[in-house]
Write a structure and sequence with these properties.
The protein starts with a strand and ends in a 14-residue tail after the last strand. The protein is α+β, with helices and mostly antiparallel strands. 16% of the residues are buried. Strands 1-2-3-4 form a four-stranded antiparallel sheet, covered by helices on one side. It has a two-stranded parallel ribbon with strand order 5-6.
């Protein structure tokens, strides 16, 4: 889900687009002719505010824009607190009805026990009828408790966005779409549009199949058909690839997970010191058991907070003027 903020600073328009994905935080910022895009890999040790504040400082974002974004993030925190309050109310409700459940089950078991004892005493089958009826009481009491749990605590799925998504997905599965030719850029735009319309907590990786190919039945209504050739996506970085590069996304997911774990445990990147290309050092990852085999593709660590890429970085040109 993307969130857009706009400010008018005299003749200059300031725009900021903020997106919270499953793996990273996306920021696109424009101010006049200035344009900056950043992608921060999420770290459990950092809050969303810390990432955004660092971006503010680096790009001289206006105070008015800062206030709006901070307010939005704080409101999101309050929204999370509301969920906590819902859980608290749920817990209190559980505790208040706990005695009802316990009493129901206890009375059921006791009633069947007494019935079994009465029949044993009358017909001389002691203690078999008592045992049998006690187990029957336990079963009926447990079933009664289960029914009560379903009735009082099962949360109905009433999110309109979730319903709309399910209906659209079902419609896409049953509709016959034409076979069309599309470019990688068209697929990229369709994936972004699909992601922006997903319910909260659902991520674009749901369109990625086990072999990293894209399930275009879920994108058919956006593209207007089913592509004539296959496209692939990395589940970790969301990069897209064509058929001739289909080996890359699977290896990228494997290496990205290894790099993330290595950085988390060792607080440094797995690459050789002073390497201008910032190549991922597979020897380090294999030696420390973060990887089992050496990938065919060479990956590079970007400046985007630990995200990797298969594209070799261009050599930076030396400028005579100092900055």
């Amino acid at each position: 889900m993307r969130h857009k903020f706009t400010k008018y600073l005299g003749r200059v328009t300031e725009n900021l687009e903020l997106g919270f994905e499953e793996k990273f935080i996306y920021v696109h910022y424009t101010k006049g002719k200035t344009e900056k895009t950043a992608c921060f890999l999420k770290n459990n040790d950092k809050t969303k505010s810390e990432y955004i504040e660092a971006f503010f400082e680096e790009n001289n974002v206006s105070e008015e824009m800062k206030k709006d974004v901070r307010k939005f993030i704080n409101n999101e925190k309050n929204f999370n607190e509301e969920h906590w309050n819902e859980f608290t109310n749920f817990l209190m409700k559980t505790l208040s009805l706990n005695m009802v459940f316990g009493l129901t089950i206890a009375l059921t078991v006791f009633g069947f026990y007494k019935l079994g004892s009465f029949l044993d005493a009358r017909y001389g089958f002691e203690p078999w009828l008592t045992v049998i009826f006690t187990f029957i009481g336990i079963g009926i009491g447990g079933l009664t408790g289960y029914v009560m749990v379903l009735k009082y605590f099962k949360k109905p799925v009433n999110e309109n966005t979730q319903k709309d998504y399910d209906l659209q997905k079902e419609r896409n599965q049953t509709t016959d779409y034409p076979i069309i030719d599309v470019s990688l850029d068209q697929v990229r735009k369709a994936v972004r549009q699909f992601s922006d319309n997903l319910p909260k907590g659902v991520y674009r990786t749901i369109i990625v199949q086990d072999d990293n190919s894209i399930d275009f039945k879920q994108l058919a209504n956006i593209l207007g058909g089913i592509p004539s050739k296959m496209f692939y996506m990395s589940k970790e970085t969301y990069d897209l690839f064509e058929e001739n590069e289909k080996i890359i996304p699977a290896e990228m997911d494997m290496v990205q997970k290894a790099v993330d774990l290595y950085v988390k445990e060792r607080k440094e990147f797995p690459m050789l010191q002073f390497d201008p290309n910032r190549r991922v050092n597979y020897y380090q990852l294999i030696q420390e058991n973060y990887l089992k085999t050496t990938p065919e593709t060479q990956f590079y660590i970007t400046d985007l907070d630990g995200l990797i890429t298969h594209i070799r970085p261009e050599k930076k040109k030396m400028n005579n003027s100092s900055r």
